[in-house]
Amino acid sequence: MSEHALAAAYPGHADEAAAALPQRLLNIVLFVTVLTSSIAFIEPSPHDGLMLVLLATCVAARVRFDRKLVPLTLLLAIWLAGAFFALIPVLDQKQTVQYVATSAYLVFAAIMFACLLCDGDLVRLLILRRAYVIAALIATAAGYVGFFHLVPGADIFLANDRVSATFKRSERVRAILIFPLLLLLIDFMTRRLRLTGLAILVFLIGGLLLSFSRGAWAHFAISAAVTISLLLTAAPEPRMRTRILLFSIAALIGMALFVVALISIPAVHDMFLERAKAIQPYDIGPGGRFWEQRLALGVILESPNGLGPFASLQRPNPGDSSSLRGRRLTAGGPESEPT
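The structure assignment produced for this chain is given below.
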């Protein structure tokens, strides 16, 4: 039967096909956009450009704004308003305008992804999961290539002898690795154990360790503990809770053995011992991170509306805290803190 005959016989068929096309296109664009999030050593990155394509596709597919997102939107709007007010004294500086424009872009991106996933669409969630895991594999593979110098010019994947992979800084590797690791951990504990998934989990954990970021290690440890606690709370029966506990213990032992095996490599061993120290030279003394954080508190009290982006760097004693909260408060003021 031809398409015209099918449309005549079933009037609703053509409408359903026309409605399904934007949804399929949206799923493809979502996959590619998340996949390219692992490439971030150039600005603007390919991911940034694809976000605009994803926005247009969301409009074409009629993705709705759910009222459950109103609290999130209000909090982000308050934070963004604080950033705009703090921008006024330094409006003549191109770098500060770019900073706030990037903040606005991230706000709209957060709301867009919330709209895509808030209705519990499992297909989109599965697409997001697959793309995120593949993106993490790409970044981790680049990290291995850089750290072990597997090809000429592999140093582009390193920053200060630490794995930065496809990012500018090693601290940013956690952004692409921790969430996929948690997704794989959930599968590992609640579904059938697969060797492929286990191999990917070990591969990504190795990449996280080679970032030599203490913040990333702590972030993953705390996130994993919270995830396991939620799984235990939500487990429908005692048998599942027992499985989660046993697999948690097995995962902890396996991870410890993997770390021991990894640090047996001389290059990894030396860097691991250095980064495992609780206090680093750049943490203490005048100009150290803790010293700057103490100064940042005084800056916040002196300028309740914030100094504006990057303005604190121009002060004799900048107090430019290395923590995200310190930077946010000195740039945008206390009104940025509800987020």
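Interim note for the steering committee: The mean pLDDT is 79. DSSP finds 13 helices and two strands in the chain.
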